Amino acid sequence: MLLHTFFGINNQKISIPEFMKKNRLKIIIFCLILIHLIPIWIVTYFPSQDGPSHLYNAKIMKEYNNPDYKFNEYYDLNLEIFPNWFSHVFLAGLMYLFPPLIAEKLLISIYIILFPLSLFYLINAVNKGNTSLGILSFLFIYNYLFHMGFYNFVISIPLFFFVLGYWWKNKDSLRYHNIIILNILICVVFFCHLVSYLLALISIFVLSSLYYRKKIKKTLLSFCYLTPSYIPFAIYVLSSDFLRSGKSTLGFWQIPQLIIDFISMKPLVSYSKHQFIIAYILSAFIVYLFFWTLFNEKIKLKGNIIQIKLDHRDYFLLISMLTLLLYFFMPSSMGGGGFITDRLFLFPFLIILPWFSVKQSKIHKYIILAFVLILCIVNVVYVSYYYITLDRDMKEFVSKVDLIEKNKVILPLPLDPYGKSYRIGIFFNAFGYYCLSNGGISVGNYEAGTSYFPVRYKESFERPPLVTVLHAPRTLDIAKYASLPIDYVIIWGTDPGIENAVGKYWTLISSTARLKVFRR
Q1: Nearest of 148, 464, 163, 127 to residue 314 by alpha carbon
Q2: How far is Cα of residue 285 from the mean position of the Cα atoms in its chain?
Q3: With 50 as the cut, is the pLDDT of residue 275 above it?
Q4: What are the residues whose beta carbons fall under 8 Å from the beta carbon of 370, sequence distance 6 or more?
């Protein structure tokens, strides 16, 4: 049924050549989606930094009141209204039907499917003649934030573009059911991530102000009919620790470094510096599309007169420039949230896609299409290679899971959190795998040490500081915390000093070249 809807197939008979000609672009999209799903499903463990933590905390939510586990003795459920709920609830729900690793892959697969479809949806609504440029979106799927395991944020990206596309398609005749759907979509974006939620509201405000600029009443109404979607944000702001504490830690990157990262497309680079090759090629290609559109459609010279052609598509160029300014001038961290500039990086490149033009000869179009398709395939092959390589290391990492008894407290010490990965610390939170099947309590559960995730540690649970455990394990005073009820210590990496210190209080029960498991 979904394929029938996607390809627009009805009960009428149609020949294969006619079907291929009519649905050429859709067939390419369908094949590219399948190809981009392959890397996820050919490995056992998706190599992300925070993914294992999200899985573990979703498991805690699912089994919180299960008497077979002791999660409720160490954790509280944080039932306040805030972003970051979506992936945890979704994963916990999937775990009733599937094992945790399959649940994670299903969530990731939904993201991979929705990401390009949302861009095609927006481009089709704004600039139908240039829908094929949506193929560029495939090159942004495997980005740094995705590999960091920021599932809530990456799911919010396609939802953001569905919101923009839906508003644009219905802007001239918004009825009650359209307003309801729009508010629901924006609220779902809020429960995914705050950055995408605020950008969605800002974008709609800018678009409506520009589009209805001669109709002030309609502009004001466009602000008012989104009132229901403001409610969760208002509750969050008024009840958050950010306001209660009255202070926030701000962090900023230097502008020159942000420019370098932007030009080199560093937020698309995850596992190896070699990926900069693809990133630079993509960056140059987008610059080419920008100037081609600018000087072949927007600015033309007739005699001595410069003619500038403006239309509604230019609103999206303006929003793209606005998000670019935010990228340069917003803090990199604020109110406990981090990686803000990395998150903002993706939007200028993606929002501008409806503005681009490919009004060229057929040969030129086919060359561009072939170029992008080849780049997509190369990128998938590259990512697949690293997924397989890192999957082997992860299998060594989890090889001692069966040694851990049920409902025990585990102290993780990630001495080598990055392994063979350039930027993604796949072993920072991978200790969550040691707690998925046995109800283990991880002392390195970073989410439980914050106020903006659904699970948090009980105040009565004594434990070493999270920052030291995860980011400076070699400096941890083992003797100071040896009296705490920690049943197992798991060390990933090599350091004779810390191994000897742990060995004074816990017994080494198994080891590999990089993995040591100690038991009380």
Answers
A1: 127
A2: 24
A3: yes
A4: none
What DSSP state is assigned to residue 405? P
> Which positions ≥6 away from 314 have C-beta within 8 Å?
298, 355
pLDDT tens, residue by residue, 52-105: 999 999 999 999 999 999 999 999 999 999 999 999 999 999 999 999 999 999
The phi and psi torsions of 258 (rounded to 5 degrees) equal -65, -40
Work out the number of other CB atoms within 10 angstroms of the CB of residue 130.
20
- Residue 468's CB: how many other CB atoms inside 10 A? 15
**293 close to 355: Cβ distance less than 8 angstroms:** yes
Angle between helices 340-351 and 314-329 (to 10 degrees): 160
Q: Hey, what amino acid is at 98?
A: F
Q: Are 438 and 405 in contact (CB under 8 A)?
A: yes
In the 8-state DSSP scheme, what is residue 380?
H
Q: What is the DSSP string of 259-303?
A: HHHHHHTGGG--S-TTHHHHHHHHHHHHHHHHHHHIIIIIEEEET
Token pair for residue 379? 């990128």
* Radius of gyration, CA atoms only, the chain: 25
Task: Report the C-alpha dihedral over residues 378, 384, 385, 387, rounded to 10 degrees.
Answer: 150
Neighbours of 493 (CB within 10 A): 18
- Reading the block at residue 303, the tokens are 């005699």
Strand 507-511 relative to strand 515-519, pairing: antiparallel
* pTM attached to this predicted model: 0.93
> Three-class SS string for 118-132?
HHHHHHHHHCHHHHH
